[in-house]
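Run log // design_07
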């Protein structure tokens, strides 16, 4: 594990959060927000570990703007982004209230406090069950539900979801969170606490190394392999580079099962979701929260 790259990615994430939060206003194009963040992280020496997720209200995760997206920022907006340095990842998220409602503020406070309570108790000896219990109990204390079927995850080089799932509810797991690299992300909702698949959200991932006959599909596949590998990527990145060829090639690769197109994850219609996330480097005798703002 390359600690220097992990720390550097976290420093970039912190700088971007402090920089972007004051700029996000109700009515801004989501595409503008995503491109501001992605341009900034590259200026600071990183690469996107995945497309910026900008999920509104009942959308919990997995929406990024398309290349010609006219959607605007509103409601309860989750901003989830990742930075990659030499394959080592910082994954972080925050939620902004663009309506000024008491419900929105309380939901944000619930997910933030849940993460803070984990941060105050985490070590190389804490169990997954304990983490889930802290998160669920905290969110319940605000009168909300923790989203049961979303979880944090371990991180490895070029691997965003590396095998260990960190629950957002108490599950009695005695698995100890060993030394390693993890993202923990409480989700609070006034819905039923279970998300379901919605429409596709413009985020893709390469599934395998297959040969394709279509020239358009080959160009897209070569671009993905050369720039993003097996990390998630945005359709707009491909289309910006390859124009109409990108649109055709993405469709063909998806139809052939070579790439996967993630669906948006949704709570009940009309309900709201907040998210707060930080990345943790757990060592034997200490924990470094790499993305936590000072």
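design_07 sequence
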């Amino acid at each position: 594990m390359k600690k220097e790259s992990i720390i550097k990615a976290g420093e970039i994430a912190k700088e971007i959060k402090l920089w972007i939060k004051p700029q996000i206003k109700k009515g801004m194009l989501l595409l503008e927000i995503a491109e501001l963040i992605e341009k900034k992280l590259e200026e600071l020496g990183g690469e996107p570990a995945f497309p910026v997720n900008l999920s509104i209200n009942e959308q919990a995760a997995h929406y990024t703007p398309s290349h010609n997206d006219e959607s605007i920022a509103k409601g309860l907006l989750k901003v989830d982004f990742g930075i990659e340095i030499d394959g080592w990842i910082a994954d972080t998220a925050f939620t902004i209230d663009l309506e000024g409602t008491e419900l929105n503020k309380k939901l944000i406070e619930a997910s933030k406090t849940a993460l803070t309570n984990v941060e105050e108790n985490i070590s190389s000896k804490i169990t997954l069950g304990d983490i889930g219990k802290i998160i669920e109990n905290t969110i319940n204390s605000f009168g909300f539900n923790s989203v049961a079927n979303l979880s944090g995850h371990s991180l490895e080089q070029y691997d965003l979801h590396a095998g260990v799932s960190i629950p957002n509810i108490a599950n009695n797991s005695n698995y100890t969170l060993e030394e390693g690299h993890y993202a923990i992300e409480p989700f609070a909702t006034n819905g039923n606490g279970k998300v379901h698949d919605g429409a596709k959200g413009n985020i893709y991932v390469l599934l395998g190394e297959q040969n394709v006959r279509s020239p358009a599909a080959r160009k897209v596949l070569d671009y993905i392999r050369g720039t993003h590998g097996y990390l998630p990527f945005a359709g707009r990145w491909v289309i910006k580079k390859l124009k109409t060829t990108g649109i055709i090639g993405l469709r063909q690769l998806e139809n052939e099962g070579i790439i996967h197109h993630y669906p948006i994850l949704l709570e009940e219609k009309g309900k709201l979701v907040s998210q707060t996330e930080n990345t943790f480097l757990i060592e034997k005798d200490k924990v470094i929260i790499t993305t936590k703002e000072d």
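The mean pLDDT is 97.
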